[in-house]
Amino acid sequence: MSKPTGLVQGALDLLILKILALEPAHGWAIAQRIEQMSNDVLQVGQSALYPALHKLEQNGWIQAEWAISDNNRRAKYYSLTAAGRKALAQEGAQWERLSGAITAIVRTV
Amino acid sequence: MRVRTLVAREQVEQELDEELQYHLEREVEAGVAAGMDAKEARYAALRRMGAIGQSREECRDARGWNTMEHLWSDVRFGLRQLQRGREFSLLAILILALGICASVAIFAFVDTALVKPLPYKDPATLLGIYERIPTCTYCNISWLDYLDWKAQNTTLSGLELFQGRGHTLTSASGAVMVRGARVSDGFFRLLGGGMVIGRDFHAGEDKAGAPRTVILSYGAWQQHYGGDASVLGRTVLLDRIPRMIVGVLPKEFHFAPAGAAEFWAPFHPESECDLRRSCHAMYSVGRMKPGVSAEAVLANLLAIAGQLERQYPATNRNQSANVQVLSEVIVGDIRPVLLLLMGGAGLLLAIAISNVAGLLLVRSEGRRREMAVRSALGASSGRLMSQFATEALLLIGAAMAVGCLAAHWTMQLLLRMLPEDMLNRMPYLANLGWTPRVAGFAFAVAVLAALLFAVAPQVQLWGQQLRAGLAEGSRGSTSGVWRNLGSKLAVVEVATAMVLLVGAGLLGKSLYRLMQVKLGLEPGHLVTMDVAAPDAVYGQGTQASELVRRILHEVRALPGVRAAGVTANGALVGHNGNTTWLRVVGRPETDDHLDVPERDVSAEFFSTIGAKLAGGRYFAESDEQPGRPPVAIVNQAFARQYFPGEEAVGKRLTKRRHASIEIVGVVEDVRQGPLNVPIRPVLYLPFHQNSDTYFTLVVRAEAGDVLPSIRGIIRNIHPEIVTRREFTMAEAISKTPAAYVQRSTAWLVGAFAGLALLLALVGLYGVIAYTVSQRTREIGVRMALGAQTRQVYRMVLRDAAVLSVLGIGIGLGSAAMLAGVAKEMLFGVSPWDAGVLVVISLGLAAAAQLAGFVPARRAASVDPASVLRME
């Protein structure tokens, strides 16, 4: 119910990892960037975002530290760990395979 | 991070709040930037963000907090529950701990004796190798026969010799008796496994004239030398002969057939007996060649024995061969006993577990309302199940701790209660303790109990309408599920108790029979003591018999001593030793020789032990004088077997081409072997011919402890004469292995049975009492309608009777099926002894009625008026 419309299970994790691969970011910035980069197609609410972040942190794929944000306030910045980088490569490849397969089917019909 | 999640919970929680707060503020700022006013932007942001509380909860789930949190609250709640019903918890823990203690302790014995592999290389290929004669199935071998077997066999990769014996160890602190063994040079190499320090015997080290060396057991090394590595090369005085220590055996080494030997010496054939083909005094152990079966080895050895029989007809007539798997030699005797005890302990454990399961059921029944309320408030069924599981686990954890501690003590206690003789015969028991297997067994018991306990209460919750509990909980109607399951548990408990009681009854009766065995002697006020004199001082000519005469003379002079005698072969020794060949004078030469045990006894021996004369006369002092015509006394079994229908007194025998011996008397059979073995024909000869420096003194005294004064007399004669195995005859009889094993098994199984009976009755009482409490209304109404007190009694007692009769029936059936197991343990009692079965059945039925009587009385005292008012 709180997941962005049409976002496949696991896709949000992949998006978060991808965003963080570019540079460390805090939760709000991650949500913003997903919106921007998808041309406002994907809207990520905090109710989906934060559980996902905490799960990834618990997995050891991302790590968090408190830092001063662009508007001079304390914010929790997430960054990718080595394990996260490996996971990103794997999940990315997996996604390409999956989406390719789905696209192929959708086109033929 | 994970650790922090658990440890610094407050902080993590606070950070989560701060993080979400930051997000909210950025949303608001973004709204303001887009041109909204502050208030409007805030509302819009809150709307966009959705339920903050829920996402906070999901973040916690993502971190796995909730699982931990629930578990922790289950544990706390469970502890409170257990504390609230403190009597219940204590009772349940006690019952479980009892079952765990019994089964774990017995399993430790089973593990060390039967499960743990023997400490040898490839133990399955080792065989005990024996000579066989018509009267003795697994019998000693002679050295010369051994050499031929070793040289001629084609099926064994090794055949080695051993002989257990006693030594006098002389050290600065005086002379003590120690256990020793002598072995052929390859003995330890055959078994496999090296020394802790030092070396094994070299090849050829067992030849006559080779340097005298000795290998210590680990225990002897620790006890006599404090585990000092510099013992190698040191000299010990064994029987006054110096021997050099060359090695120490590993701690786990044991070889029961040679006894718990502490000093292992190379064989060195020297004595007259060693060199005589007809002197069978040693044992041997062999290893099968790869791919060869025990049967093939036996066939091979039988062929060799047959060849030797033709080659040496004078000595090897009827000497055939026999083999037995070594593990059978070592633990064959104790296996049925241990398996029986393990079965008993297992049954006790089963009854304890079903009892506690029953208790848990009753309790969960009482908590139906609580469960219904919790479920109505939103607890998932998984959450309810985990609550029960947690409580069961807490209970089992506590019971495990108590039970294992008790098992540890029980092991030590049982070990300490074993007489020294038994321990020497079972040296592997020294390794008794907490092996990984024992711990694993305890763990498996815990898992089994956990599964049962966690599942049992849920059987009724599962699929049952919990909301129904809310609706009818206050009225307390009987739950069909519980009655069913509870009754079944009670029947199982009664049946199990029945099996154990029958076992205990049979063993008890068997023990009684054993103790009733006619001894042929008067055990009261009779003491016996083994005496070993140094060969170097008393080994020549008549020195030994002079020593015996002097000891007897001085002992008889002690105040209170009525009679004293001597026998060369122990008062109650094993039955297969020291046989001699005889021929009846006047019977045809072709007749097989008689192979009977020979016992050398002094003149007063029979009158001292109180054996009765059946004919002829006892030995007289004069018979012991040199030059007198040889005479003998035989027992009744001898007379019956070899002179049926004839008068034995006056007959003549010849022994190995010696002058003929006249039978001058017949005594009533005297028990000289285990109590459960038939008496064999025995030949008694006067002690004077014997130059044995190891003999048994038998003394009958008025009263009081004469052993210390006797010990004093002997030490005065020579400080190097040692005494051991000092018993009163009553003790000696009760410590014979058969009697000891029977008694301790009977006691242990009896204790198991007693506990099982108690638990079964408690279980039965629980079911009946519960049923009565659930039927109070019904009973009240019945009584209001005119039912008599008697009828109420009958109704309740009938319930108890149905359950107990079912249980007794099933128990009898199971006991009949299991009877075969106990068969070889029983002496003079059939496993289907009608008396025992009837008495136990009736007793158990009566006890069950008694357990039903208490609730019946409560039912009958129901006041109909108050019950109807409650309606």
Quick tags:
A: 109 residues; alpha+beta; Arc Repressor Mutant, subunit A; three-stranded antiparallel β-sheet; B: 871 residues; 5 domains; 55% helix
Task: Give me the secondary-structure topology.
The complex is a heterodimer of chains A (109) and B (871).
Chain A: H1 11-22, E1 25-26, H2 27-37, H3 46-59, E2 62-68, E3 74-80, H4 82-108
Antiparallel strand pairs in A: 1-3, 2-3
Chain B: H1 2-7, H2 9-33, H3 38-49, H4 52-62, H5 65-84, H6 86-115, E1 126-133, E2 136-139, H7 143-152, E3 156-171, E4 174-183, H8 187-191, E5 197-198, E6 213-216, H9 218-225, E7 235-238, E8 241-248, E9 263-266, H10 272-275, E10 283-288, H11 294-311, H12 313-316, E11 320-325, H13 326-331, H14 334-366, H15 368-376, H16 381-417, H17 420-425, H18 436-461, H19 466-472, H20 480-515, E12 526-532, H21 535-538, H22 543-556, E13 561-567, E14 579-584, E15 594-601, H23 605-609, E16 613-616, E17 631-635, H24 636-642, E18 652-654, E19 661-667, E20 683-686, E21 694-701, H25 707-717, E22 722-728, H26 729-734, H27 737-774, H28 776-784, H29 789-822, H30 834-860, H31 864-870
Parallel strand pairs in B: 4-9, 6-8, 15-20, 17-19
Antiparallel strand pairs in B: 1-2, 1-10, 1-11, 3-4, 3-7, 3-10, 5-8, 6-9, 7-8, 12-21, 12-22, 13-21, 14-15, 14-18, 16-19, 17-20, 18-19
Helix pairs in contact in B: 2-3, 5-16, 6-14, 6-16, 6-18, 7-11, 14-18, 14-20, 14-27, 15-19, 16-18, 20-27, 20-29, 20-30, 27-29, 27-30, 28-31, 29-30
Question: Quick summary of this structure?
Answer:
The complex is a heterodimer of chains A (109) and B (871). Chain A is an alpha+beta fold and 109 residues long.
